[in-house]
Write a structure and sequence with these properties.
Helix content: 55-70%
Strand content: 5-15%
Number of strands: 10
Largest sheet: 8 strands, mixed
Number of helices: 19
CATH topology of the largest domain: Butyryl-CoA Dehydrogenase, subunit A, domain 3
CATH superfamily of the largest domain: Butyryl-CoA Dehydrogenase, subunit A, domain 3
Length: 596
C-alpha cells in the first residue's frame, strides 16, 4: 500500500470541514503522489490511449467482444483488481490509487461505465460482505477480468427509492434455493456480464442481496436499451422467473441488503467524481486544440476573450476537482492506515469509507455537474461542428449526462448530504449545533475577523466566510423547522449546495497554499485558478443563503437576517477578467490543462 506524504495529526471526521480548520499539511493532493501512484497513473493512461481510444467506434456499435477483451486486459495490468484483497487475486491498493485509475481511464464514457460497474458495484459487495467461500469462488475471476460483474438494484418503479423494490424471493420447500421473481431495469453490463449482485425482498419484507450467475435457471436478460449516451456500454433489464439461487449465494445478512446497497454506492460516488475530473481534463485538451486552429474574423478563436473565459473556467474547475477528489481519498487512506493490523478487515475498511459519506456525495454531485458544464462549453467552442458525430464534443455531451443519475440522483445525494450532517449533529457525533450557536452569538455582536498578512490570507478568509454563511443559513432553517426540516427539500438542497461549494473552495485553497509553500513563483497559476473558482463559489453560496433566509423569515426578521448576510459576504472582489486571461494564456500555450 502506498505511503501518504500528507498526514494529519489524527483521524479527520467526515463532515468536520464545516467547523474545523485544516492546514495544507493535513490534506493529500495530486502533488503528494508517490512514485507508485505516478506509475499506476501512467499505466492507466497508456492503457486508455493505446487500447480504449482506438476501439471507441467498435464499442459505440456494441461490439461486446472488444469490451470484454478490454476488461480482461485491464485485469492483466492489475487495474481491475485494485480494491480486491491479494489473497483473492487482487492488488489491494489504497483508495488514492483507485481514484487515479478511475481518473485516468476516463477517455471514453462507454468503457468507463462498463469498467466502473464491474470493478466497483459489481465486485465490492463480495469484497465487503461475502463469505470466505464466496470470496474464493468469485473474486479471482472478477479481479482478473475473466469474469465480468454487474449490479442490479433499480426497478422501473424504484430507482432512487431502492428499498421499495418489488422483486420477491421465497425459500424453496427443500430449503436449498431461493426462488426469485421480478424484473430489474437499466442494468449496466447486463448484455455480457457473468455475475450479478441482485436485490430482492424475501417473503416480500426482508430486503436482501443475492449473487446470481448468468446460467442459473430462471434467469434471463432483456433487449438492449437504446440510450442517449454511453452507447458503448450494455444496458438491459433482467428478468427473474422462478430463478433458482442456492441459499449459499445469499450475500450478507438476510434483511440487511440496504447496508450493501448504500455502502458500496459511497465507493461508486467518489470514483465517479474522480472520473468526471479526468473526463474534463480530456475535454479541455480537445477544446484547446480546436480553438487554436479554428479561425474567425481573421484570427483563431482562442484569441477571443469569451472563448478564453470558457477555457479558464474549465481549468479552474479541474484544479478544484482534483483537490477535492484526492483530499477525500487521502483522508480515507489515513483512517484505514490507523486501523493497524485491522486494515485487512474489509468490514473495518467499509466503516471508514462510510465515515466520509458526505464527502463522497459531494464529489459525485460536484463532479457530475462540473463535467456537464465542461462538455456544454466544449460544444459551444466547436460551434456547428460540436453537433457533428465525427467530432468528440458531440459524443462527450451525450455521454456525461447520465452521471447526474448514476449512483443515486443528484437530488437524492443533496438530501443525503444535509440529512447526514443534521443526523450527526443531532446525535452529538459532529458538534454542528454548538458551532451554529457560537456563530449566531458572534454575528449578533457584530464581531469579525481581521485578514492577516500570511500567504493566501484573503482566500482563507473567504473559506471561513463561506463556512459562516452556511452555518448561519442552516441555523435559521433548523430554528424554523426543527425536525420537520427533512420535509423541506428545497431548503435541504440549498444547504447542500453551500456545503458542496465550501468543501470545493477549501480544497482548492489548501492545495494552492501547499504549492505556494514549495515554490511561490510557479504556484501563481494555481493561485489564479483558485481565485477564479472561489469568486464564483462565493456568489453561489450567497445566493443559496438568500433563498434559505427568504423561505424562513419575513418582515423585520427577514431584513435583519439579510443585513447580517450582506455583512458576512462582503469582500473586495478579485479582477476575474485579468485572472482568466492569465489562466487561458498558460493552458493555451501548453495545449492542455496544467497546474504550474
Amino acid at each position: 500500500m502506498a505511503t501518504l506524504t500528507a498526514v494529519p495529526a489524527s483521524k479527520i471526521r467526515g463532515g468536520s470541514f464545516l467547523i474545523e480548520e485544516r492546514t495544507p499539511e493535513e490534506v493529500f493532493t495530486p502533488e503528494d503522489f508517490s512514485e507508485q501512484h505516478q506509475l499506476i497513473a501512467q499505466t492507466a493512461e497508456e492503457f486508455a490511449n493505446k487500447e480504449i481510444v482506438p476501439n471507441i467506434e467498435k464499442m459505440e456499435h456494441k461490439d461486446f467482444a472488444v469490451i470484454r477483451d478490454l476488461v480482461r486486459k485491464a485485469g492483466e495490468l492489475g487495474l481491475s483488481g485494485v480494491d480486491v484483497p491479494e489473497q483473492y487475486g487482487g492488488m489491494q491498493m489504497d483508495k488514492v490509487t483507485s481514484s487515479i485509475i478511475a481518473d485516468r481511464i476516463a477517455k471514453y464514457g462507454g468503457f468507463s461505465t462498463t469498467w466502473g460497474a464491474h470493478t466497483c458495484i459489481g465486485t465490492l459487495p463480495i469484497v465487503y460482505f461475502g463469505t470466505e467461500e464466496q470470496k474464493k469462488k468469485y473474486l479471482p475471476g472478477l479481479a482478473s477480468g475473466e469474469t465480468v460483474g454487474a449490479y442490479a438494484l433499480s426497478e422501473s418503479s424504484s430507482g432512487s427509492d431502492a428499498l421499495n423494490c418489488r422483486t420477491q424471493a421465497k425459500l424453496s420447500p427443500d430449503g436449498k434455493h431461493y426462488m426469485l421473481n421480478g424484473e430489474k431495469m437499466w442494468i449496466t453490463n447486463a448484455g455480457f456480464a457473468d455475475l450479478f449482485i441482485v436485490f430482492a425482498k424475501i417473503d416480500g419484507e426482508k430486503f436482501t442481496a443475492f449473487i446470481i450467475e448468468r446460467g442459473f435457471p430462471g434467469f434471463s436478460v432483456g433487449a438492449e436499451e437504446h440510450k442517449m449516451g454511453i452507447r458503448g456500454s450494455s444496458t438491459c433489464p433482467l428478468i427473474l422467473s422462478d430463478c433458482r439461487v442456492p441459499v449459499e449465494n445469499v450475500l450478507g445478512e438476510i434483511g440487511k441488503g440496504h447496508h450493501i446497497a448504500f455502502n458500496v454506492l459511497n465507493v461508486g460516488r467518489f470514483k465517479l467524481g474522480a472520473g468526471c475530473v479526468g473526463s474534463a481534463r480530456n475535454c479541455i485538451e480537445s477544446a484547446i486544440a480546436y480553438a487554436k486552429q479554428r479561425k474567425a474574423f481573421g484570427k483563431v478563436i482562442a484569441d477571443f476573450g469569451l472563448i478564453r473565459e470558457k477555457i479558464a473556467n474549465m481549468a479552474a474547475g479541474i484544479f478544484t476537482g482534483e483537490a477535492m477528489a484526492y483530499r477525500t481519498v487521502g483522508m480515507m487512506d489515513h483512517a484505514i492506515a490507523q486501523l493497524g493490523a485491522e486494515h485487512e478487515d474489509m468490514a473495518q475498511v467499509r466503516k471508514v469509507i462510510d465515515e466520509y459519506a458526505v464527502e463522497c456525495s459531494i464529489l459525485k454531485v460536484w463532479g457530475s455537474e462540473f463535467i456537464d458544464y465542461v462538455v456544454d462549453e466544449s460544444v459551444q467552442i466547436y460551434g456547428g461542428y460540436g453537433f457533428v458525430e465525427e467530432y468528440p464534443a458531440e459524443r462527450n455531451y451525450r455521454d456525461v449526462r447520465v452521471n447526474r443519475i448514476f449512483e443515486g440522483t443528484n437530488e437524492i445525494n443533496r438530501l443525503l448530504i444535509t440529512g447526514f450532517l443534521l443526523k450527526r449533529a443531532m446525535s452529538g457525533q459532529l458538534p454542528l449545533m454548538p458551532a451554529i450557536k457560537k456563530l449566531m452569538d458572534e454575528v449578533l455582536s457584530g464581531t469579525s475577523d481581521e485578514i492577516s498578512d500570511a500567504p493566501l490570507a484573503q482566500e482563507r478568509k473567504l473559506v471561513a466566510t463561506a463556512k459562516k454563511i452556511g452555518l448561519f443559513a442552516a441555523g435559521i432553517a433548523t430554528q424554523k423547522y426543527m425536525q420537520a426540516i427533512q420535509d423541506q427539500q428545497e431548503i435541504m438542497g440549498a444547504i447542500a449546495n453551500m456545503t458542496i461549494e465550501t468543501y470545493a473552495m477549501e480544497s482548492a485553497v489548501l492545495r494552492a497554499q501547499k504549492l505556494a509553500m514549495h515554490n511561490e513563483e510557479t504556484s501563481k497559476h494555481a493561485l489564479n485558478m483558485t481565485r477564479v473558482y472561489i469568486s464564483g463559489a462565493m456568489d453561489r453560496i450567497e445566493s443559496a443563503a438568500k433563498m434559505v433566509i427568504a423561505a424562513c423569515a419575513e418582515g423585520d426578521m427577514l431584513r435583519s437576517q439579510l443585513a447580517i448576510l450582506r455583512r458576512l459576504s462582503k469582500y473586495e472582489p478579485f479582477n476575474i477578467v485579468a485572472l482568466r486571461q492569465a489562466i487561458a494564456q498558460k493552458v493555451l500555450e501548453s495545449g492542455k490543462y496544467l497546474v504550474a
